[in-house]
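User: If only I could read backbone structure tokens as easily as an amino acid sequence. Those tokens are not coordinates but codes from a learned vocabulary of shapes. Could you go through the record with me and say what the backbone is doing? Here is the record:
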Amino acid sequence: MSLLRREQEAKLALIESIAHSQQALARILDSVASVSAHSEVSARNLAENIRLLSRYQEEMSRMATGIRLARIRYGEPGLPWLKHPDYAIRIVRDLQEEC
């Protein structure tokens, strides 16, 4: 068996493992949802554990596939990069007139 094939099989096994883990996590969330509704501490601990598990799985997926997912950023949006919003429209009109 070639090294490339063994590497591909290992990556596939890792991805399958992550998929099974996600299914197990969904079952756990379903089971714990009723308990967490009554305990804020339990809900907070569960949310933190899920966040950590998701980050581990994301990193494993990135290592196996080479694809990095964009992180969600929270906060106030920045200023527009165009000083005059109609500037882009004028550029398009000028280009259309040239054609």
Summary: The chain has three helices and no strands.
